[in-house]
Write the C-alpha cells for this entry.
Amino acid sequence: MLVIPCPHCGPRGEIEFSYGGQAHIARPKDPEKVSDAEWADYVFLRDNTKGVFLERWCHVHGCRRWFNVARNTVTYEILAAYDAGAKPPKLDYETQV
Amino acid sequence: MTQSFRLPEGGLIDRDRRLGFRFDGRDYMGYAGDTLAAALLANGVHLVGRSFKYHRTRGILSAGAEEPNALIQLGEGARSEPNLRATQIELIDGLEARSQNRWPSLSFDIGAFNNALSRVLPSGFYYKTFMWPASFWMKYEYVIRHAAGLGEAPRGRDPDHYDKTFAHCDVLVVGGGPAGLAAALAAGRAGARVILAEQDSDLGGSLLGTNGTTIDGQPAAQWIAAARAELAAMDQVTVLTRTLAYGYFDHNFIAMVERVTDHLGEKPGHLPRQRLWKLRAKQVVLATGAIERPLVFADNDRPGIMLADACRTYVNRYAVRSGNKAVVFTNNDGGYTAALDMAAAGVNVRAVVDLRANPEGPATERAEAQGLHIMPGSAVVGTSGEKRVKQVRVGRVDPGSGRALAVSETLDCDILAMSGGWSPALHLFSQSRGKVVFDEALGAFVPGDPAQGAHSAGACNGAFGLADCLAQGHAAGRDAAKDAGCKPGRDGARAPEAENHGFLPAQWAWEVPSDKPPGRGGKAFVDFQNDVTANDLRLALREGYHSIEHVKRYTTTGMGTDQGKTSNVNAIGIVAKTMGREIPEVGVTTFRPPYTPVTFGIFAGRDVDGLLDPVRKTPIHSWHEQAGAAFEDVGQWKRPWYFPKPGETMHQAVNREVKAARDSLGIMDATTLGKIDIQGKDTAEFLNRVYTNAWSKLAVGRCRYGLMLNEAGMVIDDGVTARLGENHYLMTTTTGNAAPVLAQLEEFLQTEWPDMEVFVTSVTEQFATVTIAGPNAKPLLRELAADLDLSTEALPHMAIAPGRVAGIDARIARISFTGEMSYEINVPASCGLALWHALMTAGAKYDITPYGTEAMHVLRAEKGFIIVGQETDGSVTPIDLGMDWIVSKKKDFIGKRALSRPDMLKPDRKQLVGLLSENPEEVLPEGAQLVERVLPKPPMPMIGHVSSSYHSPNLGRSIALAMIKGGQARMGQTVLAPLADGTTVTCKVVSPVFLDPEGTRLND
Amino acid sequence: MTCPEKEGWGTAFEMMPRYSIFSLIRNALSYHEGWPRAWRSPEPKSSYDAIIVGGGGHGLATAYYLAKNHGMTNIAVVERGWIGGGNTGRNTTIVRSNYLWDESAALYEHALKLWEGLSQDLNFNVMFSQRGVLNLAHNQHDLRELSRRINANRLNGVDSEFLSPQEIKALVPIMDLRANGRYPVLGASIQRRGGTARHDAVAWGYARAADALGVDIIQQCPVTGFQVEDGQVRAVETAKGTIQARKVGIVTAGHSSVMAGMAGFRLPVQSLPLQALVSEPIKPVLDTVIMSGAVHAYVSQSDKGELVIGAGVDSYIGYGQRGSLPVTEQTLGAICELFPMFRRMRMLRQWGGIVDVCPDASPILSKTPVGGMYINCGWGTGGFKATPGSGWAFAHTVAKDEPHPLNAAFSLDRFRTGYLIDEHGAAAVAH
C-alpha cells in the first residue's frame, strides 16, 4: 500500500486518494479545430509507462486537491510530488527506471 | 490415557495445569504450554493424517509453522476450522480435534486405494486422461473433487468477530528469537518506537528448543526473561506475541494478524477472535529464523519420521520423547545435537547415519565422545512400517558412483530423525521485492540487497551460530533505529555474547543416494503434503517443463498449505542436479503472501452483518419505516420504493400512488438527489462548459434542466440547476452520481480551468428535499407558506424562491419530474421530518399520498422523461435521446467534439422511442429485446431493447420506453419482443411522450 | 527467475504420442521414463513467416490456429519468461460468454464453443468444467440490467437464464441471500455452459499442439525492439538475436504498451494490477461459479478444493504483479457477507497480474499503424475465457491481413470513430 506525499497535507496512505492517470494532458483549446484522431488521442490514448511515470492523484479523503506525482510503476517508488499545473521536477530517469 | 512419552521433568510446560483434549474421539491429557502436536506425541500418537493424493499415513514432521502433514480439523459446527497445523495449536482444556482426508477412519481409509494405483497417477496424469468420452469430464471431475480437498468448511455463520487496527512505528522487528530480541533491545534503547511481532505464544524462538545454552553468561531462559522485562519497561516498545507478520507490501507496509482469543479456554465476548494489524514501519528488521529441511529418500514419509530439530524441540520445550528407539539421519553436524538431546532424554539412539564420509564438527565430536553409534558415509535407503516407522535400511554410499550400495544394516526404531540442512525463512524479504542469492557453503538461499528499508538478521540471514545471530540482531536493530532517524542508544555498543555453533559442516545431497535406480523402490517424497516425489520432478523435466515455475505447477510441489516451506529448496536442488545446472540458474519460485494461511474474517473485520458498505438514510427515513414502506437500494441510499397499505400488492400500491399524484396530491422524499452549491463569478461560464445547453442568460430565481456528458459524448448525468443569486447556484444531480459529478466538476476546475473563480461544495446532506406534486400542490403550499406569492407571475414553472414553509426556512422550486404542478421544498436537513409531518397533516384534506421511486418512475415515463442509468448506459448521446434541443451549437462543452465523430452521426444509432404493446394489458418486461422478425431459432438480429416499462393507471394501459436502432424514423412501425417464455409481444413505435405533450398540466 | 536452455534439453524433436489412459498405463510399466517432451525448446531460426510475441494462452492459441487453420507452420512464439507465466497462470479461470453487446457475445460465444471441444482438439485435458456461472443482482437496477443481458444473450444464441432467489438457494445453499440487508441477492443470471478450466493446462495444451504442428516456442527470449522499414515490419530484435519476420502479432497483455512503444504507436490501454487469492483446500462446498460485479467478488471452488477468489483492480498503473491490501479487504469483506461461513476459512496464497484495460472494457484485436504488425490486447480482467476465440480470430487477422467478422468491431480505430463496445457503462446507477 502506497504512501503518497500530498503537497498540501503530507504523506498519507493510498486509501485516501483517487487516481487520475497520466499527467500533463491538456484539453485541446479549440476542440472543433482538431481532427477525430486528435480528439481520440486526447480522450483515450495514454502513455502506460513501465518505469517513471508522471501521473495525477486527488486527495479525495483529505484536501480534495489534484496534484501530480512521479512514480516508478515497477518498484512503486515515488520520486516527487508537485502541484497540478506545475512543471515536473528534473528527474534522473535513467537511473530510476 | 497416560502421557507415557512425557519426561518426568523439564520443559517449559506448566505441569500444574493438566488439560484434557480429544482427538478422533479418544480422550487424552496434556499440559498448559503444549501444542496439540506435543500433547499427542506425549501420548504416543504419531499417526495424525492422510496425505492429499495417495492418502498415505502421515505423522508429525515438525514443531512449527512449516508443518506439511499434521493438519487437523479443530472444533465442531460453526466454529470448526480445517487444515490447522497441530504443531501450532495451543492446547486448551476441552479441545476437540479430528484428523482429515480419510474415510471411514484414519487407520482404515478407502482413499488409500490411490496409493495402490500410484503407478498410473504420476504428476500431471489428469492432463493426459479423462478426455474420453468428451461429455464425461463432469463425471470424472465429480469423483476427483470429492477425493480432493483436505478438511471441511465450517458449518454455519461464524459466531466470532474480528477487528482491525492501524499502527505506525520506527522499527518493526519480525521474530522474537535471539536475533529479534537483540534487535528490539538495540532499537528500543536508541529510543525508537518499536513493535516486536512474534508468531509463537512466547518469545525466545529457537532458544526455546535448546538445552544448556547460555547468553551473556546466564541461561537462555533468564536472558529471555530479562529481555522481555526490559522491553516491557520501555514505553515506546510494543511486544506482540501470537502475531504473525504475514505479508510485506510496498512502502514498508506490513500486514500482521494477531490471535487474540484462540488460545483462551474461556473467550471474553468483548475481545475479537483475531485482529488485523495494518502497520507502516519506517524500518523493518527481519529476524524470521530458518526452517530445517527433510532428506529425500525412499519412503521418507512414514509417521515417526521427523525433522531432527523438531525432536529436539519436543524434548527441550515440551519434555516429550518422540519415541523409544531413534535413528538419526543427517548430512550435517547439527543433526548430532538432536541425537545428543534425545539420548539425554532417555531415548535409545540406535545410530546416527551420516551422509558425510568423514563426519566432523563440534556436535559430532561430542556424540563420538558419548559413544553414539555413528555410521559415516551412509544413507537410509528405505523404511518400513505402516502406521509408524518400524525399521530403516541403511546402505553405504559408494564415493565413486555416488550411489548407495546394498543394504548394510537394518535398524529397528520408532523414530527416524532427519536433518537435511536449513533454509532461511526468506518469505517476507522476498515479498518486499528483495532478491535472494544462493550461498553455496550454507546450501541455501539467503537475502541479497534489500529493496525497501529492511534489515535481515540471524538465521534468516544465514547466521546460524548464536553469537552471530545476536550480533546481527543487535546491529540490525541499531542500524534500523538510526535509519529511522533515532539517535544511537546509551547501551548501544555491545551485542549479547554467546557461543557460536551452527549446523555446519555439511555435505549437500538434494536427493539421498539410493540402492535402486531413480524412481524404483519406495517413493522419495519432496513435498509431503502434495505427495510430490523426486521422480515426479524428473518426469516434469523429461516432459519439457523446465522452468522451476513450470515444475512447480506441473507437479504441484510447494503448492500445499505449507507453501513448500520444507520442500522448495530440495526441489530446486533436485531440478538443478537433474538438468546439470547450478542452483542459481534454476532460481526460486515466487514467495507469495501469506507466510502461513490467515483467516478471511480479519479482512472483513467489523464490516460484516450489513456493515460492508455504509447505509445512507434521509432525515425522513423513520417516517417511511413506520408507514411500512418497501425500500429500494440506490447507491448507498435507502429510498422508499412504494408504500403498500395493508393487503395491497405492489402493483395496487403503485397504481394508487400514481393516480393520487395526477388526481390530487402526492408527496415524495427527494432528499437523496445530489445537491451541489456553486458560487463564484465565473459560475455561469462554468455551467456552460459542463452542461450541453447555455446558461449565460439564466436569471436569478430561475431554474434550468441540464445534461452532462463525458468527453466521449455520452450522457453521464442530468438535473436541474437553480440560480439563487448573482454568483450563486444550486445544482442537483441524480442520486447515484452525486459524488462522481462533484469529483468531475472539481477536477475540471482544478486541472483544466484553474483560473475560473468557481467554488463547488456538496450540500446533499445539509438539506432535506420534499416534492409535492399534483393539482392540489399549490393549494397546500399556499396554506403552509402564506408569505410566499405562488402566482405564476411571481413563481412560474422553473423558478425558485426563498420562503417559510410551515415555519421552516426553505427554498421552494417550482419544478416537475412528473408533469404535474409540483414544488420541491428544500429545508435544512434537521427540519426535514418536521416539514414532512406538516405537509402530511395539512395535506390530509387532499388525501395526500406518499409515493416512492416506482410511482415516480411511472409518472415520469408517462411524460417520456429519461432516467440516467436506465434509458442510458454509457453509450447514449443527447441526440440519441431526441434531446437535440438541449445541445448548444454555439458554445463548447465537455463532450461536444465527440458528438461529431463518424459513428455518432449514423442514422442506425439506438434512439429513444415510446412503445405501445398491441395488448394494452400486457406490460413488457424491462430488458426485453426487440426484433423486426422473429426467426425460428437464435441467433436473430436485435434492433433494441425496452429500457422502462410500466402499467400506466392514468392512461389505463401499459407503456414502455425503448432504445431502438433508427427509432425516430420508425414511428408507427411494428416491432416484436420475443420473450423468454416463448411468447412474442407485438408493439407499435410511438413518441416517448404519452401524456400531456403540451405540458398544460404544469399550469394553473 | 531465469532458466536458460542448455544443450541436451530440447534440441531433439520427437514424435508426439497421444495422451490417453492407455498411454499412461503403458508408460507406468516403464516407470514413466518414456514420456517425450510436451514441446521442444528450439533455438530461433533466422527468419519466420510470422512471429507471435507473447507465450501466454492467447499467443500460443494464435500460433496453434495459424498452423492449424491457415497452414502457417514456419512461425515462432517468443516469450520473455516461461509460457503461461503471465495472466494465463494468474487468473481465476472463469469461462463464460454471456456478454451484453452483440459483438462481444459473438466473440466470447465462439470461444466457448471452442472450449467445449478443446481437450479433445488439443489432446490435453484442460479440465473445462461446465459447472455454471451465476451473476448476482443486488438491487432493482441490477435486475433490470440482468434481464436485458439475459434477453440479449438468448436471442444471440448464448444460453442464459434468470434464477429467482429460491432457485439460487437450491443451487448454492451456503449463500446468505439476505446478506443482512446490505447486498441482498434478488436474483441471478446463470449460464450453465459456463464454468472454469485449468489455466496452466491451456497454455501447455496449446504449446504442445502448436509444437506438434511445427511451431517453434522460444522461451527466455525478451523482445527488445522491432525493425520497421517503410511502415512495414521486417524483424524482431530479441535477447537471442534479430529474427526476420514478415508478420508480427503482439499478444503481451500488460506489456502491450511497451511493445507498441517499441513499434512506434500508442494504445488506449492502462496496465493495472489485478489480484486473486485462494483459500486452503476443503471438501466440496461450492459447485458453481459466483460473480458479483456490484461488490467485485468472484468465487469458485477448484477441483483441488481451494476457493478461488478474484478481486477488483487497483486503480493505478502498476507493472509490479502485486495487489494492495485495501482491495483484498474489500473483496474478502464481500465474500464473507455472501458466505458468512467462509469467515473462518483461511487465505492460502495471494498474487497479482497486470491487466491491460481499455476505456470501454473491450479488447483490441486489430491491425496497427505498422504494416504486417497486429495487436491483440485490452482484455482487462476477463481475457482467460476468450483464449480460444481470441487466438482463432487473431490468427485469421494475422494470416489474411484483415480481421475476421468476429473481431472486426474490436479495432484500434473505434476510438476515433466512436464505435465503442462499452461493457461496463451499463453498470452505472442513478435516479
Remarks:
- The longest helix of chain B spans residues 466-483.
- Chain B has 23 helices and 50 strands.
- Chain B has a mean pLDDT of 95.
- The longest strand of chain B covers residues 162-174.
